[in-house]
Structure formats: C-alpha cells, structure tokens
Write the structure tokens for this entry.
Amino acid sequence: MAKSEVKLVGKWSSPYVMRVKIALNIKSLKYENFEETMTLVPKSDLLLQSNPVYGKVPVLIHHDKPICESLVIVEYIDETWSTGPSILPSDSYDRAIARFWAAYIDDKWFPPMLNIITVEGEEERKPYFEMLEEVLERIEGAFGECSKGKPFFGGDRIGFLDIAFGSFLGWLSVIEQEYYGSKLLVEAKAPSLVKWAERFAADPAVKGLIPETDKLIELGKLLQIKWRAAIGKK
C-alpha cells in the first residue's frame, strides 16, 4: 500500500489522535502524519478543509476522503482493513456494550479532567476529582464484564474499549502528578485497571505513543492560560 493512501492530521498530545494511531498500528498500516501546531497558532488549512464542521483533530484521510471523530475513525479502520486483527467485538451485543462504555468515557471522563486543569484552587477541583473516582469505579466494573477474565477489555488483545479508555492514560498521569498529588488509579480501588494499564502501555500497538508526563504538564500550563482566557471572554 502506498504511503500517501492514508494520512492522519493530528497532535502528539491528543488522546483522540492516539486512538487512531493505535488502531492503525493494530492493522499494521503505514500512514503519512501531519502534525498540527500547538496552542495559540492558527489551525492549518488542511485541517480546516478536512474538518470544516468542527475544525478539530483527528482527521483520517483515505484516498483523499476525510473521516472525522476518533471513535468513528477507529470503526472505519476496523471495517476497511478487515483482514487485520479485529478491533471491535465480533458479537453484536458485545459491540453494543463496547460502544456504550466508549461513549460513557467521552461523556464522563474527559470533561472533569479538562475542568481540573482549567479551574483555580483545590476547592474548585474537588468535585471533579470525585467525578473521576466514580468513573474509575464504573470502568473497573465494566472491565470485569467486557474482558471475561482475559487481559484486555477486548479479550486476548487490545480492542475498541481499550483504545477508548487507554488513550487518556498520559493525561491521567498529569492530573495525578500536577493536581491530585497522588495516584487516582490505585489497586485499592481499581485493581483490575491498574494491571490492565501496565499491559496496555507495554503492548506493541501502544508502546511509544503515550506522551511523556513532563511534556504534557508543560503543555497543560499553556492550555490552562488559553482556556481560562476563553472562559473570561464569555
């Protein structure tokens, strides 16, 4: 396959872009990576042309046709390159459950993480930490349901839900180190997820993709200024 057949518009720090990269790695696909400039610099023409509705990464471009939204892209990759390892479960019920929990993660996991970085003061952050703890408890239960005693949500190998949740591990480390002051993901509360996270990070499809915590912390400080300024304008 020619390298130019598949292009990815993204950012190194984005958990949503990471989802797409993991899926591409699972399928052993070569692709051309287009890195968006960070923080305050205007978005590229390629991004705005490829995703005029949201203007957000990631965008997968396959044969010059753009596909947007990370989970939509992961499903597209799985369906288009069906000869590689499957990402979504083969059983229709299991697929529905994986999609449900992936939607739950995007709805309930990312917003409090964003708010923790954006708001000022420990008291303001407290309710968002409580939200994260509740989500972890529910995802711990979901792991038992979906994994059926195997190493990953997807069974013997990384699947759709592993990708959806695991893509946030880098930013979770930022929250733990910079704002919470201790680990959120601990064996006392989520023993299965702690072991799963180690397996996930070490998997060949993931290894090298989780950004370094120190780099994310520095980026987070810049984004914090940007997001607080945006709130102030409202």
User: Anything to note?
Assistant: The chain has a mean pLDDT of 93. The beta strands are 6-10, 32-35, 59-62, 65-68.
